[in-house]
Write a structure and sequence with these properties.
Layout (H helix, E strand, L loop, with lengths): L5 E5 L8 H16 L3 E4 L5 H12 L4 E6 L14 E5 L2 H11 L3 E3 L4 H16 L6 E4 L6 H12 L5 H4 L2 E4 L2 H9 L16
Parallel strand pairs: 1-2, 1-5, 2-3, 3-4, 5-6, 6-7
Helix pairs in contact: 1-2
């Protein structure tokens, strides 16, 4: 059983073309606040990032933004968070997000969201962390990505146990339940953690 006191949320700094994406961000933010789970996210006030943060804050939750100084003006830093941490680089941002989180959820987003999700999933595959990684797959947004992972597995580029590390649901409550039930039981770890 995984104890989740804080959850890193990856998502777009845009709202997207389908209103269901923002509705899901709001629903997740409220759910996490209700359950006393602190949100760790990228610190922007825009798009799905702002929606999940605002929903949690309005519901009495704690939200921590982690933002590289150079992006503060471009992404419009949120000015009402529980805590804002300004770091020097994207690498520092991602490392701190990982260190402060008990799990990771990706909502809809673009290249930045996909890059963060893939890196976090790779870190799990390599044994760098043993935390649950999930996707809130709204309106089938991630279906093409999931098909790619299935193809990578079918073509011998990914082991089934690595594919199973990614938890996928379309409902926030169902995803949180699966994350709490998550047990990191990987049989193969390609690199010893001490070597990384």
């Amino acid at each position: 059983m995984t104890k989740i006191g804080s959850l890193c949320v990856y998502c777009g700094s845009r709202s997207g073309a389908d209103g269901r994406y923002e509705a899901a961000a709001v629903s997740l933010g409220r759910r996490l606040a209700k359950e006393g789970i602190e949100i760790i996210y990228g610190g922007s006030a825009h798009g799905l990032m702002g929606a999940v943060a605002n929903a949690a804050l309005q519901s009495g939750g704690r939200v921590v933004g982690i933002l590289p100084g150079g992006l503060a003006s471009r992404e419009k830093a949120h000015d009402s968070l529980t805590e804002m941490v300004v770091v020097g680089s994207m690498h520092e941002r991602k490392a701190l997000m990982e260190a402060r989180s008990d799990g990771f959820v990706a909502l809809s987003g673009g290249l930045g969201t996909l890059e963060e999700l893939c890196e976090t999933l790779t870190w799990s595959q390599l044994g760098i962390h043993q935390k649950p990684v999930g996707i809130l797959n709204i309106a089938g947004f991630y279906d093409p990505f999931l098909s790619f992972l299935d193809q990578a597995m079918e073509q011998g580029f990914m082991d089934p146990e690595h594919r199973e590390l990614l938890l996928v649901e379309s409902d926030p409550e169902a995803l949180l339940d699966r994350m709490r039930d998550f047990e990191w039981t990987l049989k193969k770890v390609w690199l010893d953690r001490s070597e990384l």
